[in-house]
Write a structure and sequence with these properties.
The protein is mainly beta. The chain is built from two helices and 13 strands; from the N terminus they run αββββββαβββββββ.
């Protein structure tokens, strides 16, 4: 068991290494002045096939439906089993988090909060105005968004991919996300890794996406939930 734990830790660490230091531009070149912006500009819906790999090499297949409203920074998401049963539903706005449905083992408040934070990181732009621009040790250009509880790095990857890494204030790597663009945009393939002994990895493959063809966030007064 200890050997499995060690191997899992090493694999996650090597696949999503930290690399804190950046070399800041004295005067950013014109072509690097804009940071990557893969985010939806209007209300959008995404449906992904999700494969979850967690300790000890447990694989779970889910379908995820994500609704994004960039203007209000509202998120709504649902997870369904391969058989089509809803196992988790929640929404988040700047006012707070609302859980409408959460079946075990997804009924933890921490799970819901962490999941909505991950979705926000993937689909909504950072709110920080403290942005540093420079290059990583491997020469890739990076934009670093500072916040009170840490920072977020966004850099280009191979084949037009975008890599997002979120660090806690002490420098520990919290999340590593890779976005791959396709004909429908940057959310055709998403890989998210949460490092650590009990870390996990999500592989999300786009099934369908939809633009603002109607109101996507319609309040449902009959829907209950915990706040």
């Amino acid at each position: 068991m200890k050997r499995v734990l060690l191997m899992l830790t090493v694999v996650l660490a090597l696949s999503c290494q930290a690399g804190h230091e950046i070399k800041l531009f004295d005067r950013p070149p014109a072509e690097s002045s804009a940071c990557p912006c893969p985010y939806p500009q209007t209300k959008s819906r995404f449906i992904h096939a999700i494969e979850v790999r967690s300790f000890p090499d447990v694989k779970t297949a889910l379908i995820g439906v994500t609704l994004i409203d960039p203007a209000s920074r509202s998120i709504s998401c649902a997870l369904m089993s391969a058989e089509g049963m809803a196992v988790f539903e929640a929404s988040a706005t700047p006012a707070g988090l609302e859980i409408s449905r959460a079946l075990p083992p997804l009924d933890s408040q921490n799970f819901a909060r962490n999941m909505m934070d991950d979705i926000e990181m993937i689909f909504l732009p950072p709110q920080s105005t403290d942005i540093q621009k420079g290059t990583l040790a491997d020469g890739r250009r990076v934009c670093r968004y500072q916040s009170n509880d840490g920072w977020l790095d966004m850099a280009g990857g191979e084949g037009g991919k975008i890599e997002i890494k979120r660090y806690e204030k002490g420098g520990g790597l919290k999340r590593c996300v890779t976005l791959a663009a396709g004909a429908s945009g940057h959310y055709e393939a998403i890989e998210l890794a949460a490092p650590g002994i009990f870390g996990y990895r999500l592989t999300m493959t786009l099934i369908d996406s939809q633009g603002p063809d109607g109101e996507l966030f319609v309040p449902d007064e009959n829907r209950g939930g915990d706040k």
